[in-house]
Input
Amino acid sequence: MLKLHNLSKVYRTDEVETVALDNVNIEIESGEFVAIMGPSGCGKSTLLNIIGMLDSPSDGDYVFMDENVAGYPESKLSNIRKQNIGFIFQSFNLIDELTVEENIELALLYHNIPASERRERVARVMDKVGIAHRAKHMPSQLSGGQQQRVAVARAVVGDQAMILADEPTGNLDSAHGQEVMEMLQSLNNEGTTIVMVTHSPSHADYARRTINLFDGHVVTENLRAAG
Amino acid sequence: MSQLLIGLRVLRRQGLYGLMAVLGLAIGLAVAVIALLFTWQETHYDSHIENADRIFIVDSRVTRPGRTEAISAQTPGALAAALDDRVPGLEMKARVLRQWSTLAIDDRFNFNLEILGVQDAWLEMIGLPIVAGSRNSFTSDATAALLSQTLATRLFGDEPPVGKSFLLDGTATAVVGVYQDFPTTSHMVIDLIVPERAPAIAGRGVDFDGDWARFTSFTYVQLKEGTSVSAAEQAIEDIVHQNFQTARWLPTGGNVADLIDNSLQSLSGLHLNDRTYDWGVRPPADKLKLTVFAAIAVLIVVIACVNHINLSTVRSIERAREVALRKILGAGRHQLVVQFLLEATVLACVALVLALTLVELSSDFANDLLQTQLDLTNLTEPSFLLWLLGLVAFVVLAAGVYPAYIVSAVMPGKILASHARGARGSKGLRSVLVVFQFAVSICLAIGAAVIWSQLKYARQADLGFNAENVMLLYGVGRAPESAIRLTDRLDKSISGRPGILAVSASNSSPSWGFVPEVDVRLQTDAPEAAQTMGRISVDLDFFPMMGIEPVAGRLFSEDFGMDRIQWEYQKRQSQVMPIVLNKRAAASLGYVLPENAIGQQLQFTVSEADDRVAEIVGVIPDVHYKSLKDAIQPMIFYPDPGAFSVMMVRIDPEQREAAIQSIEEGWSAVMSNQAISSDFLAAALSEQYDAEAQELKTVTVLSALGILIAVFGQYGLAAYSAQSRRREISIRKVLGARVRDILQLFVWQFSKPVFVAMVVAWPIAFYVMTLWLENFVYRVAPNPLWFVLAGIIALTVALLTVSGHALKAARAAPVEALRYE
Output
């Protein structure tokens, strides 16, 4: 699916140079479920943003589906991103002014899909994550778990091959966290590649592989026995 | 004090926001101050004259059945002397004569100016302030003169003027005193005053003292305090009625009391009364202009306040955190409101100082726009300062209360606990305010376009004659010599010189907007069937000179004895007078086909003493002898050299300079003591619409200012919007939105209010401009294109204003916003 080769990310300001990622080499296969762990400030989110093409590396190669996208301009990245990658954030990032339905539809809005098909797909995915009864509600009227389910729905409604989840359970209580993880797992079972940043070792256990980052380096990679 | 400091600091910290808020408000205030100054002046005319409220001008109104009512600020010359104790409360009275004269000094000066011939009592009444020399016993010397400072400087430079002399209509006249210029806010402004016995006035052979037949003199009376004005008015009118002798031009038969009524107009009220006099005193305040200007000024101030409300609400939302903290630290809502109001006051004061500077800088421009001379020293008048204070208070209340109220209502816990943006203010109200701003600006822009197109139409319309390259020579009616011989001699003197194509004379120029009237009826009709028509006396060259062709019959010509004989005053009385009608006159006499009118005889009655038999020899098209504001009236052209008062000379455009010189030489060869006053007909015609041209300027400037202020507001809102929608934009970008998609979002957000504004503005502008156009009988229809164009301009301006922020927001990397949420 994707391959990072000697990838580095350096943030520069006038006085300080911060190395967020240093010579990272990672390969993720199609259909994998990978968890990224590590202490605060180790570079997890930076890594996820680069994988999600929200940020570009300072150095090294990023091969996504056999294409080296490292030097691509924003418009090209945006195109690849919207066709292949869905995002789930810790703070849900739903738009307050739009209903549940409209928030989900947003992910299809920029794909040139006819309105009728959009409505159909949104309805289907709302059923799947069990939020259909809240379709006309505003995000502020939902519980955190429900909001995150909307976010998941939004991430998959476009049939994205890969979902990037940045601490998807961070703002949820354990019961709701569990619910979201099970949802991700079932998506993975259906073939979606999932890359997830998390602090929770128990949630990391849902992944088949865990990458541990420290100070911008990959320290260890643990493979969990299948099943 | 500390709050005042915070206010200033806040202002400084806001940078561009602060600048926009202050600038927008300053422009609004500057307009308001100018409007106040203007209104102030218009309502304080002659306030420099001590007893302006009990000094009166006697005016006269002549109402003749069928004729246009005439209102004059003048009375018969004999009136002033006849006023006595029959007039209750009479304290002082004076007669004033006003006329055009020629002033000459050697080869250096030779020009025409208006002069006053006065009695001592008048100088005393108005308290003419003398700065050099003296006005004591000034009227005992018939060759003495008082000069205004301006004229004295123009004639004599830095040399002391008292004792110097000049020629006035050929008579040596000595300067005995110099007076302070009349303020522009005077009912009369004059640069030269002589005793009424001066040869320039008395020498014209008019008997003012015994004249009860014509309205030739201004009559001033001063009444004792507490006198009943209406009683004095009635007494004066009775005296006029008892003595009035029917003038040659005034048909009798009626009761003189029905014909003439007189009223007293106080100097302090003269400028604001409803009487527009034909000549002599300043035209009254244009109340419509005053109202419209005041209304627009109020609108601009309101726009500026609206803007200020918007900017400060937006800004205060961003300060929600500060407010929350203050609340936690124990600040009551009351204290917060005071703080915000103080800040608003600081801002308003800074804006006021800026506004006053702007007023100072733009005063020339404003003078030109308003056709006035703004007196900035009025700014320090105590009562004016009170107005200014009121204005600032209004701005502070209007612009400070709402934001103060909104922000102080913030719940502190909510703000600090979450990342919510706190008080939002009413989005609805903000939109209404933006819509209002743009609607006003669009209305003004449409107004400007309509006025412009009507002006263009009026100035380029085919008037039915060729006005290009025609010079008008004024003042041929005022020389003592009979007008017949004078215009004849001038004609001969100017004709044939280089560059001169044709010379002609008339009693009225099409640029004057004034056509005298006559009663006519067909010989076969009963006297009651008489109709009132316009009468224009012309010489035999008039029609060819103007390029007017007949539609039936013939025009005047040397070839016809009945035309020629009109130049022989004695013989012509018993002859039938040839006349030419316009089509409308022929039609109103019953000849829809002009040919049928030819050869018909009319009774042509100017007055009882001037009653002739006339024969229709020709019919011409309906030419515009008045501006396009007036309908073409039935008109009769007749050859009467006794009535001529203006000459018209067609020159060769190829030899313009030579022609002008020819005219000047030809003039001075005949008129040794009278300077030439001339004008081009085309320019004079165009001047008929100067008032509209001024309106166009004013409306354009105000609409530009309105848009400018709206732009400031729009810019602030865009900045706020870009800021507050950062997260949403990031989410959309993560989900695949391109820069273009985000821009679309902004375009729509900021276009919506402009579209609504258009819908609001269009019907209002249509209604108001239709009313305005009704001033013109001949007019354009409001073009829908102007309405669309005004909308497009507003839209373009609005979008350009927000484009910077929109682009920045659309291009921002999405991660930043999302990470820190």
